[in-house]
């Protein structure tokens, strides 16, 4: 017995003679079915299940680093509107600096002065997909320092453990 035949039998009319009435009844019940908690629990969802999170291994002390550019923030008295954030995944050491425009040259200068000169060159860097990090200047610096660059989505839950939202 099909669903429509069962509903027709339950309400006491034949599907052959009352086809139009059955369609009207089904249309009237759609809003109730969509809001009924029992119907929603039994029907499940149409979405695929979420994938497994793959945590980022910390590795050795100077193996992996992350960098992010935060902004557009309110202007400081020196005219700075962006903040560059760096983290060493092995030691969980962070450094930040405020910059004026958030350009690729400012990011490159930060990487050279605040990261490489103080903490050595790391072997891997994790950034978001910002234009600054994919620019030719930053990519050339990473190539010269022999740093393997990896880009991740800013909404990736694995990245949110270390970088500020």
TrEMBL record:
User: What InterPro entries has UniProt attached to this entry?
Assistant: Integrase_cat-core (IPR001584), Retrovirus_Pol_polyprotein (IPR050951), RNaseH-like_sf (IPR012337), RNaseH_sf (IPR036397)
- Where in this chain does the record put each Integrase catalytic domain? 53-165
* Highest taxon, organism lineage: Eukaryota
Coiled coil located at which positions?
none
Gene3D superfamilies xref list: Ribonuclease H-like superfamily/Ribonuclease H
PROSITE patterns given in the database record: INTEGRASE (PS50994)
Q: What is this protein called?
A: Integrase catalytic domain-containing protein
Give the originating organism: Dryococelus australis
């Amino acid at each position: 017995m099909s669903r429509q035949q069962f509903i027709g039998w339950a309400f006491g009319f034949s599907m052959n003679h009352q086809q139009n009435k059955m369609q009207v009844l089904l249309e009237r019940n759609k809003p109730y079915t969509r809001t009924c908690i029992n119907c929603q629990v039994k029907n499940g969802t149409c979405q695929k299940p979420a994938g497994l999170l793959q945590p980022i291994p910390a590795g050795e002390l100077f193996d992996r680093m992350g960098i992010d550019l935060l902004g557009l923030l309110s202007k400081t008295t020196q005219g700075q509107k962006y903040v560059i954030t760096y983290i060493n995944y092995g030691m969980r050491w962070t450094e930040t600096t405020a910059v004026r425009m958030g350009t690729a040259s400012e990011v490159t200068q930060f990487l050279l002065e605040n990261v490489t000169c103080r903490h050595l060159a790391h072997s891997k860097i994790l950034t978001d997909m910002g234009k600054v990090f994919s620019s030719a200047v930053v990519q050339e610096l990473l190539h010269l320092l022999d740093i393997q660059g990896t880009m991740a989505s800013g909404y990736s839950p694995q990245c949110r453990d270390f970088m500020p939202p």
